[in-house]
Amino acid sequence: MLNYKLSPLFNQWIGFDKLANNIQDDLEDIGYPPYNIEKKDDKNYSITLALAGFKQEGLSIELEGPRLTIKGKPVLDIKETHYLHQGLVCKEFSLSFTLAEHMTVKQANFNYGLLKIELELHIPESMQPRHIAISGNNNYYSGLQDRILNKK
Questions:
Q1: What CA–CA distances, in Å, run from 10 to 15, 19, 24, 35, 69?
Q2: Which long-range contacts (CB under 8 A, 24 or more apart) does 21-30 make?
Q3: Can you give the residue ranges of the SHSP domain (predicted)?
Q4: In what order do the strands lie in the sheet with 67-72?
C-alpha cells in the first residue's frame, strides 16, 4: 500500500483552514529554504523563513493578487572555499504562497537571518457572521387566547 503525504502541498495555502480547493500548478522544491507558518489567532498569521547567509539587499517580496512570492539571491564570496563539512545551504530560491481572499501583508522584517512576514485577515463587515434576532407575533397568540377565554 502506498502512503502519500500531501501536507507539504497544503502548507503553502495560508488562510485556508479547510482543505485547499486547488493544487498549485507549479511543483517546486518546497524543502528550501526552511520555513514556518504560524497561526496566531483567527485573523493573524506569520511566515518565517530561515535564510542563513543572506543579506536584506538580496531578498524581495512581491504580492500579485493572492500570490505572495519571496525570492532570494545570496551574495557569495569570490574566493573558493574548501569545506570539511557543509551543512548550511545558501542558494538562490523562489518560494510562493497562495493567500486566502481578504488576506493582507502587514509587514516584513529581516533580523538575525530570519525573514518574518506578518499577515492579517480582513473580512469585510458585510461578510462577517452576524446574529439574527428572531421575532414572534405575540399579538396572534394573545388574540387567540382571548377568543378561547370568551367562548367559556
A1: 11, 8, 9, 14, 16
A2: 22/98, 24/96, 24/98, 26/96, 28/94, 28/95, 28/96, 30/95
A3: 26-137
A4: 13-14, 93-99, 67-72, 59-64
Other CB atoms within 10 Å distance of the CB of residue 16: 15
pTM, to two decimals? 0.64
Instruction: Please state the length of the chain.
Output: 152
More confident: 72 or 8: 72
State the Cα–Cα distance between residues 52 and 141, nearest whole angstrom: 74
Give domain limits for the chain.
7-130
pLDDT at 152 over 60: no
DSSP β-ladder status, 13-14 and 93-99: parallel
Classify domain 7-130 at the CATH topology level: Immunoglobulin-like (2.60.40)
CA atoms within 13 A on the CB side of 29: 8
- Longest CA–CA span in the chain (Å) reads 108
